[in-house]
Specification:
Blueprint: H1 8-18, H2 23-26, H3 31-55, H4 61-80, H5 84-107, H6 109-133, E1 139-141, E2 144-148, E3 151-152, H7 157-175, H8 180-196, H9 199-216, H10 226-237
Antiparallel strand pairs: 1-2, 2-3
Helix pairs in contact: 1-5, 1-6, 3-5, 4-5, 5-6, 6-7, 6-8, 7-8, 8-9
């Protein structure tokens, strides 16, 4: 079983299910497919948890930080009397993604990066095409009309960012430079956010591009590291 983590096709399938585009949950004609994929998602999450406990066992510092963050989200939801079912569904999905990344990095980072980049890159490309074909939105959901392949224009950034990050890390790891495919994913992602226009996403992606540029020219300020990012994120979320 552990050898599956060395296969980029297996990683691709897992990411395809865990990062299921919102269109399949929001359009009535895809309800059957959506139910099947939800069952697969539950099975994948259960298998990953057992798998991790059997073969990996030791959690990294980042995984522990993730767990603390999710506990904080639960407390915030209780305090604000929020939507618990939506919260726990999101947490379990995020937990599965973190587990896949955690196990992939410990087993075969190249397989992880290949599988994730392939699937998320295709999703970003399809979403970009739907934005071009339906500038005012592809369908209506919960009174929102600017919905595309990845869902509402404001939410698609949750898949666009990982797509950019996986592709950039993959190209820098394998070739020590930004490859054409990685560059295209970044360009398409940026164009998508600008065309669909969500102010929050535009600001976020511009900051990401700035950090990417600083990293590529090897001029990243020393105070910008994983510790400061975590602290900033906690303060911002609070």
């Amino acid at each position: 079983m552990k050898k599956l983590m060395n296969q980029n096709w297996f990683i691709a399938i897992v990411f395809m299910v865990l990062y299921k585009p919102a269109i399949f949950s929001q359009m009535p004609q895809y309800q059957t497919f959506d139910k099947i994929s939800n069952v697969l998602k539950v099975l994948i999450i259960a298998v990953l948890l057992v798998w991790f406990c059997l073969f990996y066992q030791k959690f990294s510092m980042y995984f522990v930080i993730f767990l603390f963050f999710e506990v904080w989200r639960i407390l915030a939801t209780i305090y604000c009397d929020g939507n618990y079912s939506s919260l726990f569904l999101t947490i379990f999905n995020s937990l599965a993604i973190v587990l896949v990344v955690e196990m992939g990095l410990k087993t075969d980072p190249d397989a992880l990066l290949d599988g994730a980049t392939f699937v998320l890159g295709i999703f970003v490309l399809i979403n970009f095409i739907t934005v071009l074909l339906f500038p005012q939105g592809m369908y209506e959901f919960n009174t929102f009309t600017t919905n595309y392949f990845l869902g509402y224009r404001n939410n698609s950034i949750m898949l666009i960012f990982p797509a950019m990050i996986f592709s950039v890390v993959r190209s820098l790891r394998l070739y020590d430079r930004l490859t054409v495919s990685s560059f295209l994913i970044c360009v398409i992602s940026t164009a998508t956010v600008i065309l669909a226009f969500s102010a929050t996403s535009v600001i976020g992606i511009m900051i990401f591009i700035l950090f990417l540029f600083l990293a590529l020219i090897n001029w990243m300020p020393k105070f910008l590291n994983i510790v400061t990012y975590i602290v900033i994120n906690i303060i911002y979320f609070f």
